[in-house]
Amino acid sequence: MPSVTAVSLPATPMGPLSTFQGTLSIQGLVASATRFESPADKAAWGGSQAAAQRAKDIAKEMGFGIGNEKRSTTKDIGSTRYSDHHVSQKQAYGVDIPATGKKGTALAQAIAKAYGFPQEAIGTFQKHNFQFNEDTYRMQVLWGVKDHYDHVHVGIRRVD
After folding, report:
1. pLDDT on residue 133
2. Residue 131's CB: how many other CB atoms inside 10 A?
3. Where does the pLDDT of residue 92 fall: very low under 50, low under 70, confident under 90, or very high at 90 and above?
4. Do the Cβ atoms of 52 and 91 come closer than 8 Å?
5. Distance CA 64, CA 40 (A)
6. Whole-angstrom Cα distance, residue 71 to residue 86?
7. Cβ(84)–Cβ(93) under 8 Å?
8. d(CA 55, CA 83)
9. Which letter, b or e, does each residue of 92-128 get, where b requires 16 or more Cβ atoms within 10 Å of its Cβ?
10. Which of 31, 40, 48, 156 sits at 20 to 30 Å (Cα–Cα) from 25?
11. Is the Cβ–Cβ distance between 62 and 107 less than 8 Å?
12. Where are the beta strands (DSSP E) in 31-134?
């Protein structure tokens, strides 16, 4: 009969934020989202807010602040009501992270890598799907392209 050894697992599967190395891990996404306190918080914006939490954690761990998230205004910032940021988009969540230069590039790459988003698609307006909490979301990472030279945009929208 084979033996079984019990091991203790950390509370956060990817470890504390300071150990983040930009690796793909659904466990990391789940660990980030578990901080939402109520079922209503977890379900906000079709679950896309919880799915976006890992990107915010990565940004904070790398020393960045968080800029725009959901908003009701668009014209004054060159956006439209179809933006993941706009409050009319009930299944979407957008996060802008102020960044410049090589640090912005490193941030965009780390976020993309954590979600399995292709590096070559950063800043191309391409969207890629990922699974989170048994749902499908599409992601867009914009950096260094039309109006995205001073911030990294992470847009997440539930698609199923």
Report:
1. 82
2. 13
3. very high
4. no
5. 27
6. 5
7. yes
8. 18
9. bbbbbbebeeeebbebbbbbbbbbebeeeebbeeebe
10. 40
11. yes
12. 92-98, 128-132
Pair type for strands 135-142 and 92-98? unpaired
3-class secondary structure, 62: coil
Tokens of 82: 């179809």
Token pair 């919880």 is found at: 50
Q: Write down the residue that tokens 């191309």 correspond to.
A: 124
**pLDDT at 21 > cutoff 70:** no
DSSP state of 82: T
Which residues pair with residue 129 across a beta bridge?
A: 138
- The average confidence (pLDDT) of the chain is 76
Q: Which of 112, 37, 98, 111 is nearest to 69 (CA)?
A: 98
- Provide the edge-to-edge strand list for the sheet that holds 128-132: 92-98, 151-158, 135-142, 128-132
Dist. CA 158–CA 138, nearest whole Å: 6
Q: Which amino acid is at 58?
A: I
What is the secondary structure of 115-142 as a DSSP string?
HT--GGGTTTT--EEEEETTEEEEEEEE
**Cβ-count burial of 32 within 10 angstroms (0-12 exposed, 13-18 middle, 19+ buried)?**
buried
